[in-house]
Specification:
The structure is a single chain. With 154 residues, this protein is of the alpha+beta class. It has two domains: 32 residues, no CATH class; 104 residues, no CATH class. Helices cover 41% and strands 14% of the residues. The chain is built from six helices and five strands, in the order αααββααβαββ. Strand 4 and strand 5 form a beta hairpin. The strands form two sheets. The chain has a three-stranded antiparallel sheet. The protein is elongated, with a radius of gyration of 18 Å.
Length: 154
Amino acid sequence: MDEVNYQALIPELKLWNGGNGIGIDGWLCGVGSYELAIAYQRLFWPEFIAHDDCVFFRSSFSVKNYEGFLEQSKGDKLSVESVMNHLHLADLFALTKDEPSREILTTLGEQLREIWLVKLAHDFPDRVFEVVCGFLGGNELIDCQIYFFQPRDG
């Protein structure tokens, strides 16, 4: 991934220090909180659970949902993993006042894609995963999604 242009993605950085600006690390020290850091760790380093040769986010997994999606997909576990493991990035902060730009969603999505690949390989070194991110199914902000699955034969 290319170097992130924080000044472009976070316009507030330019306003600090009487208009002289501030770097991302200084800004984070000024506006961040321990509580937010703990909450964000669930997004950036999620817990996973293995079930029936599939892998899912632990926080949202249920056997009932799994069985329902497996029945709907006629046993296609790749499809089930893709659906159950997807996030719409614009929904992550839906209650905030600011609407993200495409660049923000793309940058966040690409960072998550790389992090999740590392975490999945760490937790399941004997398995192969793909993490897909992009504007899937349309060009609206809500169409920016990320999901993971295990490639399967057939």
